[in-house]
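Checklist before submission:
- one chain only
- standard amino acids only
- sequence pasted in full

Submission:
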Amino acid sequence: MGTQIKWPIFIREWTLPASIDGIADDGPAGDGNARPYNVPNEASTLVAKSPQNWNPAIRAAVFLACLLPFVALVRAVVTNSLGPDPAEHLMHVTGEWVMRFLVLVLLATPLARNGWPRLARYRRMLGLYVWFYATLHLLVFAQVYIGWSGEQLVEELAERPYVLVGFLAWLILVPLGITSAQAIRRKLGKNWRRLHKLTYAVAVLGWLHLLWLSRSDVGDAVIYGGLFVFLLGYRLAGRIRFAAP
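Returned file contents:
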């Protein structure tokens, strides 16, 4: 008899509120009250288990909403409505959604600290979608631009800095995505938080990738750069404030 896939458990791993980076280690509590780093707070408790009033329908709705851009892309491919440059459209849309989900992941902590922890409940799901759309972005690049050639990939990495930083960002996302499962998180213990702080590196590399691709039109790069500076600066200011005697 074949091994049965436990779909409810699989879906639960994607939709429960464990996150791609911790809130408790950032200093202030998720409910807006300051606590020391070693004191659990409401936001970090959300990572451990789902609250009693958690609505599965809302979780499923958020999961499906995050999947809509992918569904729209598949529909556009099937109906041949990607525009005059299908490859460019696929690269642009998948890359854009990577950046959008990354902003949401980093925005979860500031909102939780200021009394709105709802986004933090879906942070792990959002983080996994960062990885998902980044992987789609890489697959389109591999199919269209280098034809799955390892030699061509090495050449692109050596000659095009934006390809190098984008590929490095994806490589970092791989262990972050794999270790998002609750069982792996428990095994890693405190090392899990240290590992998932690499989310900040992904944000920086993703921004550099966008900036070097922008050429003369740097509008999007400026917007995302401003958002990342604010969000990462907010984290850094919080750590400095709570580390002070």
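Reviewer check: Residues 7-243 form one domain.
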